Amino acid sequence: MALDERFKGVGVALVTPFDEHHNIDYDGLQKLIEFVSEGGVNYLVVQGTTGETPTTSPDEKKALLEFTKQHNTKGLPIIYGCGGNNTRAVLQGLIDTDFSGVDAILSVCPFYNKPSQAGIIAHFTAIADTSPVPVIIYNVPGRTVVNMKPETILELAQHRNIIGVKDASSSLEQAMEIAWKAPKDFLLLSGDDNLVTPMISVGWHGVISVIANAFPREFTDLTWHALEGRFAEAAALQFSFLDFDRLLYAESNPVGIKKCLEIKNVCSSEVRLPLVKATDNLGEELKAAMIREGFLG
């Protein structure tokens, strides 16, 4: 089986815009889809963590997916977030979802339960056996508490319906081991925006990005410079985002990136509780950094 080239480069983990009453702002979402698509991203990720999935209802998730499919004017590939820590509920969600127009799912490592590596393998095997579209597994131990070890990821890579991994472990050692031992057709996607260049340098294929919501052109340029071997150009852009990336997470994700989108007049910075909007101080720091790095005219 060949590597699925549709998911090389930059996928953007779309935020979910809200209005002042914390209802979904579909006008803002349409503007965001158009903004990132014109910015050159390679595919869209609907209802990943950055989309505030813990606070969107099952009906809202389906509505967000349908809206994105309907307003995907550039016909970009779509990945839909389908994960959780209740395996039976995830499987039922897969059965109940209309996957027409969906190219793959992104499924997060179970959180809170703290499963063993064997439990993780059984969980994702059940999902991959049920999913009508290919599965990309997602390792983000900073949120789930559990790290999918390289040997676990490599075992799951043998499943015919698991086509890749998004890894946000922040471990270059882990990234190197996976790249070294993974099948050649297994997609390797960074979940850490600030490690894209070094991860690509050892064989990774791209990123599912938070930053690309507000800076799609710059982050797509960065990623493709690296993929095409222009590492000096990639590094220069990577360094310009380094301090900025830390600011984005100072008050949790997607608080920071939504503030950047508000500054750029794409959508509101509203978030749903238990998250709260960016403080004035963070907003000022983000705007200053955007100006300093040339991300805001």
In words, what does this structure look like?
- The chain starts with 8 loop residues before the first strand and ends in a 5-residue tail after the last helix.
- It is an alpha/beta fold and 297 residues long.
- It has helices at 26-38, 58-70, 87-96, 117-130, 141-144, 150-156, 172-181, 196-201, 216-227, 231-248, 255-263, 280-292; strands spanning 9-13, 43-46, 78-81, 104-108, 135-139, 162-167, 187-190, 206-209.
- The model has no long low-confidence stretch (mean pLDDT 97).
- 43% of the residues lie in helices and 12% in strands.
- It has a single domain, classed as Alpha-Beta Barrel (TIM Barrel), CATH 3.20.20.
- It has an eight-stranded parallel barrel with strand order 1-2-3-4-5-6-7-8, surrounded by five helices.
Summarize the structure.
The protein has 297 residues and is of the alpha/beta class. It has one domain (5-230): Aldolase class I (TIM Barrel, Alpha-Beta Barrel), CATH 3.20.20.
| Proportion in helices | 40-55%
Q: Which segments are poorly predicted (pLDDT under 50) over 5 or more consecutive residues? A: none
Shape: globular
List the domain count as a whole number.
1
How would you sum up the major sheet?
8 strands, parallel, barrel
Q: Name the CATH superfamily classification.
A: Aldolase class I
Quote the beta fraction: 5-15%
Query: What is CATH's topology name?
Result: TIM Barrel
The total of beta strands comes to: 8
Overall pLDDT level: 97
Structural class of the helix and strand makeup?
Answer: alpha/beta
Distance between the termini: 45 Å
